[in-house]
UniProtKB/TrEMBL annotation:
Compartments, record wording: Cytoplasm, Cytosol; Membrane
Annotated GO MF terms: arachidonate 12(S)-lipoxygenase activity; arachidonate 15-lipoxygenase activity; iron ion binding; linoleate 13S-lipoxygenase activity
Family: Belongs to the lipoxygenase family.
Main location group: cytoplasm
GO BP field: arachidonate metabolic process; establishment of skin barrier; fatty acid oxidation; leukotriene A4 metabolic process; linoleic acid metabolic process; lipoxin A4 biosynthetic process; lipoxin B4 biosynthetic process; lipoxygenase pathway
SMART domains on file: LH2
Site (Essential for stabilizing binding to COTL1): 99
Domain Lipoxygenase: 114-663
Domain (PLAT): residue spans on this chain: 2-114
Protein's recorded name: Arachidonate 12-lipoxygenase, 12S type
């Protein structure tokens, strides 16, 4: 006879406990035993039991559990179960971290990560095969729109698997803040009913409520060319700027602009000429909002980097050449102030579109969802890469499903306020998806391709590279624990299936754009996993968090434009500027959504600080602890640097980076 000490931990979330009775079995190599416990798990509690078992169970392999309900199936969120065997046996952990529903028996394997080839005990192989078969029935692919990455098959949030849903506190906060934003919008609309809306200062009437200190600085300085240039490096969208290697073909310089050409050529020779080309927007149909036609442009802007590292705009071409306008008007800093301001507003509007659709929605949210669905379909809970990745896909399926039903759906936020809404956003997504490359998701490759390495004022670039290095070391630490040689990587069928599922299925045959269809080495696997974690954490933070700072003052990044782009400079008046910028309704909606989507989440889990313990044993824990130490060091470096800056760059401070795409 041996005595076993069993600890059962229940989640701390609202409604995690259950009034239903839970039945437990211990399963060892030599036998199994039912535990006659009257377990009714309580939220946030760890319950401990001692139980005598008549036979020797041997090495523990599984804990099996079944929840019995009477009248009501009261779901239970089980964190983990640990068992201390007789004598000097080590405590054994059985991670769960999922909802227990119905009356089916749930088997929890011992928490040691195992590769498919490591299964000396056939029971584990059978378990992982059954688990994947069941998961592939639950986690199915769907096509939201042709030509885009696949999504989880869920028409609405209630269709999602329970373990991918928001916990109750998250759901309540998300839905209450939406209502708070709607109330604030209504109050602002009432406040401005009898007020004028004919000069830029009138935007002050709605610039109250939820805003940040940086947003206030933007309001004061948004017309400055220096801040306009700064945003291409460190604003909400630092992904478009690139160093020029030649003068763009589309930049047609008419006679009389020889001096400008000479200036551009000089900066080009010095390596200080940069460009941002929004050609992806060319030909995208503009929205119609409440019967009023909206407008889009595809600007090109050339900038020079001064010796102090600051970017200054040199020339803006609002539209590319076309047969009816072979020499489009060029706007210069020396133009009449309102004409130059309106040209910059068109650039900022175009940047808003590409930022939200291409770099935010596609490159972070949709890519993260592909990683999440493929992980659930191809990697069983025993697999080390599943244990490694699962904290980084928390809430991603639900936030994306909500986006497809509320934000980018027919009649959603984009249709109500954004110039690419009404279907243009889907066309833009398709164009962007066709250009999505593996290298574009990896900062060392992307920043080198754009010529931005080593720029002193490029704070996003500097912090992104440091984070990539830290995440890469973390990945390598975990991978080398389980894959000591390249042939072990090549011989893992579950890992290879996961890779194919992402590239060929989720990303729709993306191997032509550099994504791998198999892993041939440790280094190839490490690079891919680093991309996955960076995309789901740091890159999303860099792209998402700046919305409140840079978009709350609407003239700095107008969500829509209500008049056609100007073709002359002398005719631009304040009425032209105000008639082009969003109206009160659209501006209020932009402010509300910017706050809702980029505020810090109450249940935010910082990068690397998840509490779930999916791995067993000291070695994975040591790797995670080193990762946290590296992040703390970077945090101190960024904090010290930011204290010296007029415009601190906070988005890639590790404490500000969420562990997954959750908003």
């Amino acid at each position: 006879m041996g005595r076993y000490r069993i600890r059962v931990a229940t989640g701390a979330w609202l409604f995690s406990g259950s009034y239903n009775r839970v039945q437990l079995w211990l399963v060892g190599a030599r036998g199994e035993a039912e535990l006659e416990l009257q377990l009714r798990p309580a939220r946030g509690e760890e319950e401990e039991f001692d139980h005598d078992v008549a036979e020797d169970l041997g090495l523990l392999q599984f804990v099996r559990l079944r929840k019995h309900h009477w009248l009501v199936d009261d779901a239970w969120f089980c964190d983990r179960i640990t068992v201390q065997g007789p004598g000097a046996c080590a405590e054994v952990a059985f991670p769960c971290y999922r909802w227990v529903q119905g009356e089916d028996i749930l088997s929890l394997p011992e928490g040691t990560a195992r590769l498919p080839g490591d299964n000396a005990l056939d029971v584990f192989q059978k378990h992982r095969e059954k688990e994947l078969k069941d998961r592939q029935q639950i986690y199915c692919w769907a096509t939201w729109k042709e030509g885009l990455p696949l999504t989880i098959a869920a028409d609405r949030k209630d269709d999602l698997p329970p373990n991918m849903r928001f916990h109750e506190e998250k759901r309540l906060d998300f839905e209450w803040t939406l209502k708070a934003g709607a109330l604030e919008m209504a109050l602002k609309r009432v406040y401005t009913l009898l007020s004028s809306w004919n000069c830029l200062e009138d935007f002050d009437q709605i610039f109250w409520g939820q805003k940040s200190a940086l947003a206030e600085k933007v309001r004061q300085c948004w017309q400055d060319d220096e801040l306009f240039g700064y945003q291409f490096l460190n604003g909400a969208n630092p992904m478009l700027l690139r160093r020029s290697t030649s003068l763009p073909c589309r930049l047609v310089l008419p006679s009389g602009m020889e001096e400008l050409r000479a200036q551009l050529e000089k900066e080009l020779q010095n390596g200080s000429l940069f460009e941002a080309d929004f050609i992806l927007l060319d030909g995208i149909p503009a929205n119609v909002i409440r019967g009023e036609k909206q407008y889009l442009a595809a600007p090109l802007i050339m900038l020079k980097m001064e010796p102090n590292g600051k970017l200054q705009p040199m020339v803006i071409q609002i539209q590319p050449p076309n047969p009816s306008s072979p020499t489009p008007t060029l706007f210069l800093p020396s133009d009449p102030p309102l004409a130059w301001l309106l040209a910059k507003s068109w650039v900022r509007n175009s940047d808003f579109q590409l930022h939200e659709i291409q770099y935010h929605l596609l490159n972070t949210h949709l890519v993260a969802e592909v990683i999440a669905v493929a992980t659930m379909r191809c990697l069983p809970g025993l697999h080390p890469i599943f244990k490694f990745l699962i904290p980084h896909i928390r809430y991603t399926m639900e936030i994306n499903t909500r986006a497809r039903t509320q934000l980018i759906s027919d009649g959603g936020i984009f249709d109500k306020a954004v110039s690419t809404g009404g279907g243009g956003h889907v066309q833009l997504l398709r164009r962007a998806a066709a250009q999505l490359t593996y290298c574009s998701l990896c900062p060392p490759d992307d920043l080198a391709d754009r010529g931005l390495l080593g720029l002193p004022g490029a704070l996003y670039a500097r912090d992104a590279l440091r984070l990539w290095e830290i995440i890469a070391r973390y990945v390598e630490g975990i991978v080398h624990l389980f894959y000591q040689r390249d042939d072990v990587v090549k011989g893992d069928p579950e890992l290879q299936a996961w890779c194919r599922e992402i590239t060929e299925v989720g990303l729709c045959q993306a191997q032509d754009r550099g994504f791998p269809v198999s892993f041939q080495s440790q280094s190839q696997l490490c690079h891919f996993l680093t991309m996955c974690v960076f995309t789901c954490t740091a890159q999303h933070a860099a792209i998402n968090q700046g919305q409140l700072d840079w978009y709350a003052w609407v003239p700095n990044a107008p969500c829509t434009m209500r008049m056609p782009p100007p073709t002359t400079k002398e005719d631009v008046t304040m009425a032209t500027v105000m008639g082009s910028l969003p109206d009160v309704r659209q501006a209020c909606l932009q402010m509300a959504i910017s706050w809702h989507l980029s505020r810090r989440q109450p249940d935010m889990v910082p990068l690397g600080h998840h509490k779930e313990k999916y791995f067993s044993g000291p070695k994975p824990k040591a790797v995670l602890n080193q990762f946290r130490t590296d992040l703390e060091k970077l945090e101190k470096e960024i904090t010290a640097r930011n204290e010296q800056l007029d415009w601190p760059y906070e988005y890639l401070k590790p404490s500000c980076i969420e562990n997954s795409v959750t908003i």
